[in-house]
């Protein structure tokens, strides 16, 4: 072999491997020239993610592989190499995605992106869905659609600095503190004409925690709370992403990772996002540096110990007397089930734990049907 000849990376072999995701199985086949991808039908079985595997799943040389190029160990080559990694192409492909049920709402000097399903005349009341960091209200699209079909009026805003909402530069009208988030949320509820008390659904870290501390300061405005996987006790671990964001200089570098959100979702889930979903979570971070710096400021400003102490004490027996549902994805790789069990023990009369099998840190994304069933039974 000539020393100048290219290495025969995929020279003379082919293989196939099958992995199961929750409703399809994905097959990767390598040839000497390129790697092709195809999706084959899989039977959902009893609704668990283990259904649809082929006869011999034991041999899978690439492990965690799906159709998402951001998969941690996927080996995928583009059909058109010129488009691979081209930010302009990616933006063009995704710019109209992910805005289901949404519109821009002006509240004071801020512009919120808010998803809405149902109507003011909905007979069963209003539900407000609040997401955590570093995601967006897109994660609730299926849940809120089905809840409106069940007779609820639903709102799901993107927090300021996240998703499709405005991302102000710190120091110019918004500094990403807990107090400012609370005040902005109060004004948004007025603009949306949400009548109190309403049902509240909260999930996730940072701004998700601020949703819970807002409820503690406004108990009269809340009828019932449903909490999906969120840090709830002082023993709740803090994911590495938020620790990295608090490191000087390294945080500034980390926050500009365009696939930060999708990687975080995948890191806490038993599944890898499909391309069409990953595109939406990636889009804000591709469009500008604003979302990354907003996340950076939020992570720097939060006092994790104080915030978690507020939540743990505020919802304990003797402090909180309204019903709370814990709908908990047991495959969460950030927050173990023990966090939910500890929280329930602090107020067993008002907190009811419902475990969601097959779901991870974002149960509303991993298995929305089970979340809807839990919410309909609770509200």
**Number of alpha- plus pi-helical segments:** 13
* First-to-last CA distance: 70 Å
- CATH architecture type of the domain at 101-236 and 304-377: 3-Layer(aba) Sandwich
Cross-sheet strand order for the largest sheet:
4-5-7-6-8-9-10-11
DSSP strand tally: 11
Taken as a percent bin, the fraction of beta residues is: 15-25%
Radius of gyration: 22 Å
Molecular shape: globular
- What is the average per-residue confidence, as pLDDT, rounded to a whole number? 83
Characterize the structure shown.
- The chain has 379 residues and is of the alpha/beta class.
- It has a domain of 210 residues: Alpha/Beta hydrolase fold, catalytic domain (Rossmann fold).
- 32% of the residues lie in helices and 17% in strands.
- The chain contains 13 helices and eleven strands.
- The strands form two sheets. An eight-stranded mixed beta sheet has the order 4-5-7-6-8-9-10-11, with helices on both faces.
- Helix 2 links the parallel strand 6 and strand 7.
- Helix 4 packs across helix 10.
- The radius of gyration is 22 Å and the shape is globular.
- GO terms for molecular function: catalytic activity.
- InterPro entries: AB_hydrolase_1, AB_hydrolase_fold, Carboxylesterase_BioH, Epox_hydrolase-like.
- This is AB hydrolase-1 domain-containing protein.
């Amino acid at each position: 072999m000539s020393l100048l000849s290219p290495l025969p990376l995929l020279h003379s072999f082919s293989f196939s491997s099958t992995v199961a995701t929750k409703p399809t199985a994905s097959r990767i086949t390598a040839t000497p020239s390129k790697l092709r991808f195809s999706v084959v039908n899989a039977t959902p079985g009893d609704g668990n993610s283990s259904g649809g595997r082929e006869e011999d799943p034991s041999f899978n040389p690439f492990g965690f592989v799906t159709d998402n190029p951001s998969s941690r160990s996927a080996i995928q080559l583009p059909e058109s190499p010129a488009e691979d990694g081209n930010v302009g192409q990616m933006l063009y492909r995704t710019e109209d995605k992910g805005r289901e049920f949404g519109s821009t709402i002006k509240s004071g000097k801020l512009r919120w992106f808010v998803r809405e399903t149902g109507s003011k005349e909905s007979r069963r009341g209003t539900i407000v869905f609040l997401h955590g960091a570093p995601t967006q209200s897109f994660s609730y699209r299926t849940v809120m659609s089905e809840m409106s079909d069940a007779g609820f009026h639903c709102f799901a805003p993107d927090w300021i600095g996240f998703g499709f909402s405005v991302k102000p530069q710190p120091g110019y009208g918004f500094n990403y503190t807990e107090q400012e988030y609370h005040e902005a949320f109060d004004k948004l509820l007025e603009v949306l004409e949400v009548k109190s008390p309403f049902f509240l659904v909260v999930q996730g870290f940072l701004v998700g925690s601020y949703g819970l501390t807002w409820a503690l300061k406004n108990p009269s405005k809340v009828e019932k709370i449903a909490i999906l996987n969120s840090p709830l006790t002082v023993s709740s671990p803090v994911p590495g992403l938020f620790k990295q964001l608090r490191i000087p200089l390294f945080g500034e570098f980390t926050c500009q990772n365009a696939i930060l959100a999708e990687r975080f979702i995948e890191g806490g889930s038993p599944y890898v996002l499909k391309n069409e979903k990953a595109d939406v979570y990636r889009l804000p971070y591709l469009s500008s540096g604003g979302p990354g710096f907003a996340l950076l400021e939020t992570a720097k400003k939060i006092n994790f110990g104080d915030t978690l102490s507020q939540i743990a004490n505020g919802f304990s027996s003797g402090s909180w007397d309204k019903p709370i549902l814990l709908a908990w994805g047991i495959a969460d790789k950030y927050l173990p089930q023990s966090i939910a069990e500890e929280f329930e023990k602090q107020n067993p009369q008002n907190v009811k734990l419902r475990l969601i099998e097959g779901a991870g840190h974002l149960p509303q994304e991993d298995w929305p049907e089970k979340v809807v069933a839990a919410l309909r039974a609770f509200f």
